[in-house]
Amino acid sequence: MPANDQPTSLFPTIDAPIVLAGATGALGLLIAHHLRRRGATVRALVRPESSTGAEAESLRRQGAEVVPVDYDSVVALTQACTGAGCVVSALSGLRNIIVDTQTRLLNAAVAAGVPRFIPSDFSADFTKLPEGSNRNFDLRREFQQRLDKAPIQATSILNGMFMDLLKGQAPVVLPGPRRVVYWGDADQPLDFTTMVDTADYTAAAALDPTTPRYLRVAGQVASIRQLRAEASAALGKEFKLFRVGSLGLLATMIKFTRTLAPAQDEVFPPWQGMQYLHNMLSGQAKLAEPLDNARYPDIRWTQVREVLG
Ligand SMILES: NC(=O)c1ccc[n+]([C@@H]2O[C@H](COP(=O)([O-])OP(=O)(O)OC[C@H]3O[C@@H](n4cnc5c(N)ncnc54)[C@H](OP(=O)(O)O)[C@@H]3O)[C@@H](O)[C@H]2O)c1
After folding, report:
1. Most C-beta atoms within 10 A of its C-beta, which of 106, 147, 184, 229?
2. pLDDT > 70: percent of the chain
3. 24 CB under 6 A from ligand 1?
4. Nearest to 123 by CA among 276, 266, 283
5. Is pLDDT at 3 greater than 60 in this prediction?
6. Residue 134 Cβ contacting ligand 1 at under 6 Å
7. Could you tell me if the CB of 93 is within 6 A of ligand 1?
8. Shortest CA distance to 175 belongs to which of 185, 184, 183, 167?
9. For residue 177, how far is its CA from the centre of ligand 1 (angstroms)?
């Protein structure tokens, strides 16, 4: 790596600014950091009410241009996208964001003549899943149809589950009872990538004009049985497997949870997390191999053991 800590690239990189929507979010802040580290000019779009917060201040300190914008106005978004080499969306939300706001952002990018668009996908492979199997993935497929019709080069980053979630939010590795909980088959391969690695890869992809429609990455592919070994090694205690039941039982549990605690307005209610697990454990959302991990060779992929340790 050169002295200024900027990674070199095997691909031609673009000099035009990168427009980043959702830059104040958890993933957005990390993408902004890695874009700046890679020498990019970053135009961070933020809602006016978020433009004075700590996240916006952090973006400014990193050298990003913070642009307050009315996300309901295609005219304002078009102005904000003018001259950009790529629009990256790290927005998070339900239909009003993933379908409606992203469509306005897409229309603005096209109107401004931006050549490339990276949507806020950052997930397991939702492209082949049956409708209704995951509410959040249905929304991504709906936006995907609009994106694929638009006259712009699109690239989706598919990274499996954020590995960081294994630390607690995803109730799979339970340090207290030392159990790895699952449904179905303990040997089904599952894809995990840390949020930081996903952000670094996205930054590299945003600066790479030659990206294909999909880039699939996984910091580590591990089955439930392998997660048990990783947890045991990371925490120095023997973990055991706990099979709750079949995938059919998980589907029934999802229905019950959704009925008892619908929380339809939440982006990640418990039943949606369970849908995500079902998609992964069934193998239906498994990323097709070969993965694109090696595309940017400067990225070192964090392993499950490091995250759990
Ligand atoms: N693969 C996985 O396991 C996994 C896990 C978690 C998330 N993700 C994905 O990662 C992506 C980013 O998620 P995140 O966790 O970084 O989200 P986050 O922290 O909640 O940030 C969301 C961003 O969207 C902006 N936003 C929200 N509502 C908005 C609106 N109405 N208009 C304009 N902007 C709005 C927020 O702006 P303000 O700061 O102004 O609110 C913020 O910048 C999403 O696609 C999410 O689904 C993947």
Report:
1. 106
2. 96
3. yes
4. 276
5. no
6. no
7. yes
8. 167
9. 32
